[in-house]
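Illustration 12: Protein NDNF.
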Amino acid sequence: LKMSSFWFYLLLHLLMSACLSHSLKAPTTSSQQGFKTDLFNFYHSLMLADGKETTIHLLKDIPKRYYFVLEEGRALAPFTITVTPCDVPIEWSILVHKAPESFFEKASRGDHDTRAISKSHKAPSVVSTIFNYKGNSVETYMGMSSHSALYMLEFLSTERDTHITVYLTTDTTSGHLYPELPMDPRLDVIGIGHTTVTLSWKHSPSALQHRENIQYCLLVNEKHNYKSLCAAETAIRSSGMKLPPTLALSLSPYLLEPQQVMLLSNSELSIINKVSTGEVRQICMGTKNTYTVPNLSPSTQYYFDVFVVNLLTNASAAYTGTFARTLEEPEPKVIELKDGKVVQVVLDGKRQKFYSLQYQARHKKIQFTFQLCRGQVRVHITKNSKTVASENISGLRYFSLKGKLLDTYSVQLRSTEESNSSIKVQVSSHFHKPLFPVLPESLKIKSFSKLRTCNSVTIAWLGTQEQSKYCVYKKKIEEDQVWMELRSADRCSGPESRQKSEKVLCKYFYDINLQRAVTTETIKGLDAGTLYLFDVYLFGPSGIPVRYHSKAVKTRRKC
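Figure caption equivalent — predicted structure in C-alpha cell form:
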C-alpha cells in the first residue's frame, strides 16, 4: 500500500502515544502493551498487501506482526482476511488502534505541525482485540474498516517452526481468490468395495460459474485428513519426498491429464495409473463431482480430501474430509496338493494377493519343494494352524517336515514384487524319488576373459557327485536388453522353450570329489564384437531341468 501523508502522521501519532504511555508507565493490558511496544520498531514490521496471498514463516514462540490500513477517503469499507495454517496449529489475532478524532481533524486540515500533533497524543487512544483464533483450520474474518484505525495481525506458533498463508482483500465486489464451497461441504461415501471407494460431493458455486478455470482434486492417504492443500504439501515435503517446485500438489491441467494418478515413491514423483499401498496420491478429475478411487488394498482404512482449485490463481478450498475402510478380501480358493504332483502358481504382485495350498499327510515325514520361476515369492507353511516355516524363496528350496498321519499342512504364497511372480510347488513323502536333481553349491556360470577370442568364449560351471546331463544354449543379445532379459527370464522353463538354432551341446559328467566337479566348455563359431547370453540346463533322474544363472559374454572385436 502507498503511504500517504495522512497515514504518515497517523503512524507518527501512534509512535508518540506509545512512547508517552511507556514513559508514564500507565497501566495497560498485555495485548495493548505488546501492540504499543511493537510500534517502537514499526520500521522493522511489514505492511500486509491488499489483494495478494502472502506466505509468512513463523519461528517457534516468536510472534510476528503485520499491519494494514485502508486507502484515504474511505470512511467505512468491508474487508476479509483468510489465514491458512500449513502445518501445526497456530494462534492469530486482529487488533485495532483507533486514534482520537482531534488528530484526524488536524490531519484533514493539513496541519502537519509536530508540536500540535504532540499535544494530540495526550488524548487517549483505544487498542482492542476484535478477533482471535487458535487451531489449524482455514479461518476467514470479515469486518468493516474505519479510516481512523490502524489494524495489526499477530501470529504465533508454539509447537515448532512453520509457515502460513494470509490473504487480505478490501475489494469484495470482484471475483474471489479462493473458490467457493457449497453450503454443505461434506464428502459422501456412496460405495465401498474390496479395492475401491466411490465418493460424491456437492458442486462448488465457482465450478458452476467458471468451469474452465476450476477443477476438483482428490487426495488419498492412509494417515489422516488434511484441512488444506498447503498442509498436505507440507506433510509430503517433511517426509523427504520431492515435489515439482512450481506446482506442488495443485496441478495444472496442462501437466496432468484427467484421472491420472500422482504417485510419490522413492523420493521421486511420477504420473502413472497404479499405486502401492501406503503412499499419498492425488487425482484431478476436472469438474466431475463423483469419483471411484481404484487400486486400493483390501481391509485398509483410507482418508479422502477433496479440494476445489482455481487454476488461474492456484488457490484452493477444502471440503470436509472423510474416511472409509475397504472390505476384507474374500478367502482365496484353496488348491489341494496331491502327493508327488507339481503345481505351478502365478501370483499377482499388484494386489499382493495370497494363494493358499493345502495337503493332508499320509506319512509322518514329508518334503515340500519350491522352485522359483520368476520374481520374488514369500512362502508361509503351517501345520495344524501352527507356523513351521516362513521365508522368501530364491532358486530351489526344500523343507523336510515331520509330524503325524493326517496332519493338515497349509501353504500361503505371496509375491513380494509389483510385477507378477511364478513358482513351482511339490509335496512328496517319497524322499527316495526326488523330483529335482541334486544341485551344486552354486548355479553361477563363469567366463574367462583371457580366453576370449573374436569367435570363441570359454565358460565353466560346477557339477555334482551324481551322473547328470548338462545342455548349453546361446543367443545373441543387445547390451541394453541384458538387464530386462535376466529379470524376466523364466527359471523354470526348459530347453523346450528354446529355438533349435540356440542349442550348442549336451554332455554328461560327475566327480566323486566335489572339489574337482567342475567342467569347462569352449564355444566356437561366434561373431566378433558380439554379445551372447549363455544358459546351462541341468537334468535330474525325473527329467525336470534346473536352469543355471544366465551369463552374458562379449567376443573380442579385434584379434
